[in-house]
Amino acid sequence: MACGRLTLQVLSGTWAGAIAGFKYLDFGATPADSIEFGVEVDARDSGSIDIRLDDPAGPAIATVQVSQDAVGRGWSRLAASMPGITGVHALYLAFHPDEGEIGDVSFFGFTRDRQGAA
Q1: In terms of Cα–Cα distance, which of 57, 45, 46 is closest to 94?
Q2: Contact criterion met (CB below 8 Å) for 76 and 40
Q3: Residue 51 belongs to domain with CATH number
Q4: What is the DSSP letter of 31?
Q5: Looking at the domain assignment, is residue 60 inside a domain?
């Protein structure tokens, strides 16, 4: 995951129950063997971030763990494996801090392993 930033835009207010939604993400027509969801977090507290598709109240398809080791260390890149997904979907991040708030999120992205790749 590379990120060339001139201006840092962050998602904040990641309190318990907070959900951020992003529509019209195109995962392509070719299924992937797996997808890694990566997120960069300036953690203020440990907890987890659920990744949900198409429904903010739907089941999590992946969960990123924010460990106590990441708290107070500045920006950390965290990841979780997701199943292969195709098509256009809304993506929701649901925040579950152990206390307070998870912290600021500067970006998220995906790394795909294509089927049949060596």
Answers
A1: 57
A2: yes
A3: 2.60.120.260
A4: P
A5: yes
